[in-house]
Write a structure and sequence with these properties.
Radius of gyration: 21 Å
CATH architecture of one domain: 2-Layer Sandwich
Structural class: alpha+beta
Largest sheet: 2 strands, antiparallel
Distance between the termini: 80 Å
Number of strands: 2
CATH superfamily of one domain: Erythroid Transcription Factor GATA-1, subunit A
Number of helices: 1
Order of helices and strands: EEH
Strand order of the largest sheet: 1-2
């Protein structure tokens, strides 16, 4: 036995509060649904982009019609 208690506790990636990393925590590794949704919103808005060279679009530019 490790003597560390009933389960592993990690820092919530969104707010830093202690969060149980056990199957009983349905939001793991987050501490709450709010923190999970905050993180999901960051992904959806592009906050977690990896910097790299600018990409050119694959769609050709539209031609002006007379």
């Amino acid at each position: 036995m490790s003597g560390r208690g009933p389960g592993k506790v990690v820092a919530c990636p969104a707010c830093g509060k202690p969060s149980s990393f056990e199957p009983s925590n349905r939001w793991r590794p987050f501490c709450s649904e709010r923190c999970r949704l905050t993180d999901l919103g960051g992904w959806a808005s592009g906050d977690y982009r990896i910097p790299g060279p600018a990409q050119t679009p694959d769609v050709p530019p539209e031609k002006d019609e007379p």
